[in-house]
Amino acid sequence: MKHPEQDDKRTFFGLGIAPKILELLEKMEFTTPTPIQYKAIPIGLEGKDIIGVAQTGTGKTLAFGIPMIQRLTQDKSLGLVVVPTRELAIQVDETINKIGSPFGIRTAVLIGGAAMYNQLKALRRSPRVVIATPGRLNDHLNQKTIRLENVKVFVLDEADRMLDMGFMPQIERIMQHLPKERQTMLFSATIPEKIVRIAAKYMKLPIGVEIAPSGTAAKNIAQELFIINREEKPKLLEKLLHEYRGTVLLFSRTKRGATRITKGLKNMGHRVAEIHSDRSLAQRREALDGFKSGRYRILVATDIAARGIDVKGIELVINYDLPDDSENYVHRIGRTGRAGHEGRAISFATPDQRRDVRNIENVMKKSLPVAEHPEVPAAGFEVAATRTFRPRGRQFNRFRGPRKRR
Known about the structure:
The protein is α/β, with parallel strands linked by helices. It contains 14 helices and 14 strands. Residues 1-7 and 385-406 have low confidence and may be disordered.
């Protein structure tokens, strides 16, 4: 299982990993560590604080999971992993269980939308690792159904995403319950100022591990941008879905839009499911499981799925709507091109979205290749009228026009 940036000469041997965990990794067919794993695992095993910066899909769960499990086998302490979404919590739990269960290390998942009774039952079984979303973990802390004074290893995964979702107050309340003597590992695709403040306040001389510049996307993802009028989006989508035959993850900006797109795709005869915050946890699990198993070819999602969906073999990511936050573009397209596979990301932009595209390009530090489809009328970005003021607070420069799609 080779990552495009992996060095074939590197192995998990020599990183300080215990022989039994090495055997487990071999059974899981993990033979070559990804760059973030190669750099972060030895530091994590030493018990040092880490700030890990790596693009999505680079194996961060094992980068903190291996040191956590190995350190927890040395005593009766606890591990705590806090993540932004329910889907990511379930994914992390699956990975941690693979390396923890052979050591008798049980886990508990504390997420909103799931029955509190089942979570209390899991907590009574004395789990050694707790994976939680911030809101539900605070619910348990308020009800005194969990205590965190024995936490030895604390992980904030996808920290920038949690801050984007407004979880900073909940995270700070959680940290007040943690012991001062602990290891903290923070992983993120970007490092905004708020994360720097967290590091200064709550971490002890953290070691930075940066694999790719903040905001960069995987190299093996081919990207295209179509500039079209809004009413042409359904037609272009239908043409692309006939051109590409594999699995498709499609992003809508709003929940209502996701439902409307899903209905339209069903009317076209496609096998499609939707996932967003208005769907129940059971509905979201069914959609994700169905997408993984092939029951659904297309998954329509809002940005709740930009991270935390670990589905191998997604052929195409379509940004039907550009994200509100330009940094989410990186996380969206990172759902394809995983584990060394080739991937493709196609984005739709309307003529009034020149600034949104430029913001994405600034984050990516590269231009998005513009394409056009022979059966769908192309458009160009709007050109601002020659005036002495900026209309509606925005001004557009002339765009040289789309180039032919290869």
